[in-house]
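Subject: sequence -> structure tokens, single chain

Hey, anyone have a minute? Need the predicted structure for the following. Not urgent.
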Amino acid sequence: MCSFLEGPLKDLTSVTEEISRLQSMIDDAINRREKLQHFIDAHLALLSPARRLHEDIVREVFTATLPSTRNATISSDEAPLLLCRVCKSWRAVALSTPQLWASFHIVVTPPPNFERLMTLVETWLTRSGSVPLDISMVYSMASDWNWDVSPLLETFASVSHRWKNVHLTLPNTAAHALGGLTSNDVPQLRSIGLCPPSQDEQNIIGDWPLDFLATKTLRRVTFTGTCSFAFSAISWGTLTCLESSNNALW
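Reply:
Had a minute. Here:
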């Protein structure tokens, strides 16, 4: 019986070896094909019409990708950060376009992540150059609002000369960070929104005067809670809209 199977066993071994050899050749061919395809795709990309667009046109297209009904979030899932992930040339254009970074919405995170948030905000402000700013800030649901966010508000205050449309969650414990601003510090401010971080703190400003509200460029004020900030500071003659919570007053 064993002698009877010697021939088939040898044939099986030979066929197995042949399959292994052929599989190795196929694997090698697949590898070479993938390298060639990658080489071809890379060079075809260089010939893409998008590559031949003038940089100014690319900037206009990039700017049009920003959200139209809200400020951009500091997220890699949307412009402008998403544009930086496409290719090296697009990243260079995005980083050199201040308008892309002049609008941002941030969610204040708990203290363990606050330092990273500060770094992101400072980077964003640097990239925005001298362009007027649209800023909005809220607290995350997981965040304990009763801790000091003064460093963040002080960073915003340092660029107040570029404020255009600003909406801030402002606890009493940090309101002093804006207390020193005057109308001369906000020459471009068009609208401002102020609200407390929670229902427990309805007096959003407390005893801190906001003299900068006297700027004659201000057109819209929105507030939530008890407004004990100095309404006398507002330039009423130039204001066109005043809102309390969801009810328009003027």
